[in-house]
Amino acid sequence: MFNQQSLKKEHNIFKLKKALKNHLNFIKSKVQVKYSQEIKIEQDYIEAQQIESEVLEQNFYENCCGYGNKHEFPIIYWLLLFFYTFASTSVLVLVGYAQEFLLNKWLINLQNGEDLARKLVTLMWLFSGFITPLLGFVIDMYGQRSNLTIFSGLMAIWAHLLVLLQSPFEGLLLLGFSFALSYTTVWSSVLYLTHPHKYGRSLALFVCLQNFGISVTPHICSFFEMLTESKIVTESFLLLLAIMATMASLLVYKEDKKYVNLIDRGLQVESEISSKIKSSKIKS
């Protein structure tokens, strides 16, 4: 009697496990189908943009510069452009006045304060130069560029706060790390988002806006310094630029995920679109 009850109990447990396993397999299949459908929708949308850019007539500006072509220069390219402009400006402008700022705010009471301020800025650039190849290697191995843009922006905010309120040494090192990360992330991303025959134009625009930012921002900061008679307002303005860079990075992340991680697999998406278009032309 006891053996029969035990066998019956084991049989019921076996049936329950089998039912649970079948139910889990059903759920997994539904999730996989839903995910594949989402990928197909995004790929079809990208393909539609490609066909639209090829079929519709382009004006003189689009033919000469190509910046108006949404396929060759997608929205995420412009978001990365704004992110890099704000991020690089917030760092490079700081370098121009960092020695004076550090001396007046943190090192004024030290006998060798001026020399120490110069060494701190030099150390920031040395650290940034040393860490850049390592970051490039990590990005090539693991990708996640859209996540790293957010991380870079947040680090820039933290670094400016440290320089402004607590410690210039850690702040400058973190700022150098943030600059290196934004540089390797953005410039490698552009190569995934634009065609090889547009690399010159796409990268030149980044340099153009970066130079524009570091040329105009010091004059804006000087204007605020005249109004407030304080050097802190300059660092506060650069902190604002870092916040704007972080906001742009969030938009980059949103746009990237909409296209199923386009920023890391842009060339793969491009090849898929091209093969689809070729096959459709052959069938027609």
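the 2nd protein, sequnce then structure:
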Amino acid sequence: MFGEIIPVLDSQKANKVIKKKIEEKDFPIPKNLSAIELNDLNNEYKNIMEMKNRLEDKAKTIVASLTIAITLILNLSKIIEGILEKYPFKYMDVLIFALALLSIIYMLMAGVMCIQVLIKENILHQVPLDLRNDKKSIYENTQLNIKQNLIRNNIIYTSYKSIRNSAICLVIIFVLAILPYHITEKNNGIDISYAANKTIAYETSAMKWLLENKQKDFSIGGFIEAYHLNGENGVKNIYSNDEKLLVTIEQKDGRYIILDIKGNVEEITK
């Protein structure tokens, strides 16, 4: 599961084992090698070379696609702004920022890995000119190139996984953006959004009261209006004699934070 979230770890681990086998030439030599036709060995060698070219073409295609994808991701600001207005919940901005950042990181990881295929792992094990008729040399270099192609394939597959993870993050953002849902006044008897230009966040204790008292006809708008009648900003306790509610409100960073709500509070008169 962890390897699906950070796929590059599994790829590096597997490629480390393969590179060690390449360095040590850790592969068996067939006992009947002398019986195999030289032409067959050369054809196999050429096929592996063609596979190398195909893998590199895939890497180039991914790099070209990622440049477009990252440009689109960087233009998500309007979509994110719309989501934050649609869901005025605490930490929603942190969640959306994290998803967008992860999407960019995954895309960059995929691009870096594909460039690695084209540069760092652009290794070719060639048969020396004076050994072109040596079956053992042809076979050994073919096996080395097969293992090098495994490294390329692992990296490209890992880049696909990174692109998939980036796409998942983007899909979550887009679903939140297009979801036909809007918190409006008198939603299940609870007014959560007072006005389009006023963002309201609820602390845990206040949200707990709201969830436990959904049946009550509660409107936060009147409390916010009373908040401004009391003068300067800061933490204020607003009491409603009609509803017997004591609401603690703070205005901070352009939003109203409902710190706490207490019900069945009787006013003490002197």
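The helical segments are 2-5, 8-24, 38-73, 77-86, 92-118, 135-178, 204-212, 221-229. The two ends are 64 Å apart (CA to CA).
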